[in-house]
Amino acid sequence: MSALLDAPATARLLPYPALVDELARLLTDPAVQVPARLVQPLPGGGSLFVMPALDGRTAITKLITFTPANAGTGRPAIQGDVVVFDTATGERRLVLDGPTVTARRTAAVSALAARWLAPRPDGPLLIVGAGAQGRSHLDAFAECLPLRDVRIASRSVASAQALCDHARALGLRAQVVTDPDAALAECPLAVTCTPASGHVLSAPVRDDAFIAAVGAFTPTMVELAPGLCRSVAERGSIWLDTADARHEAGDLLQAGLDLGGFPTLADYARERASHRGRAGPVLFKSCGWAGWDLAAARLAVSPKP
Fold it and tell me: Which PANTHER family match (predicted)?
């Protein structure tokens, strides 16, 4: 019988350094197949996501709901499960907690992108948004990068302070900031992980900046001002987590950019040498992909020492 894992048990199977390495391996695995995800609108403004993926050994379906109206109610915005099957026997092996997989694999993808693309991976790091994704990104960057200093900005002062306290418990220098645009001038690393209901960064970015924008994952959602996106496109480079982001990345689409030529993490994994040494700021736009959930499932079912 397969195990139904809660959030803490799921997290224990997905340590960030190992998850980042598994994500990198998945990008060069020719057996990986990721059909298009189904996004079904729900009454009240929510969405049902059905996201399958498979390789030669493992098949998964992530079945989650995204309910923006839950913000501030005590109920999570993302709920659901990731069901993991053995492809040879059809046996259901695990049921992972969906929000935990989503938070950890999203943060691990950002950490992988920063490891590969950030001019200054030591930070300081600016995190805009102090919810579940803000915490997971803090943990992932702290474990996977040579990070020492973090600044936290949030609409909720209490949430920002709580995340700041967590950062200090990890041994980092940390402070709450009220003006993320001003903090951006001091931070070569930045992550935006907000509900994506409006611009949270609009100031010019440093030449050595790396920004991971993860909150907006539909064409109508946005976190970054159009001018910021266009400036990075002109002065540096824009990267996508996958090709699917070309029709999902609201920040870039609303900036009027042609997304067709922007490279993906898979492009980097296949052609690292040709992408090294690029000058200027880097914007990494992440919209999510069932392949990232498959990587998490592969790690979860792998033999443990």
Answer: KETIMINE REDUCTASE MU-CRYSTALLIN
Residue corresponding to tokens 């501030």 = 72
Q: What residue type is assigned to position 62 of the chain?
A: K
Measured CA angle at 122 (ends 281, 274), to 5 deg = 45
Question: Does domain 3-101+292-301 sit in CATH 3.30.1780.10?
Answer: yes
Q: What are phi and psi of 154, to 5 degrees?
A: -155, 155
* Digit-coded pLDDT (tens) for 190-240: 999 998 889 999 999 999 999 999 999 999 999 999 999 999 999 999 999
Tokens describing residue 235? 């002065």
How far is CA 121 from its chain centroid? 16
The answer to whether the peptide bond before residue 124 is cis (omega within 30 degrees of 0) is yes
Residue-wise pLDDT for 89-140, tens only, equals 999 999 999 999 999 999 999 999 999 999 999 999 999 999 999 999 999 9
Q: Which residues contact 244 (CB under 8 A, 6 or more apart)?
A: 36, 287, 289
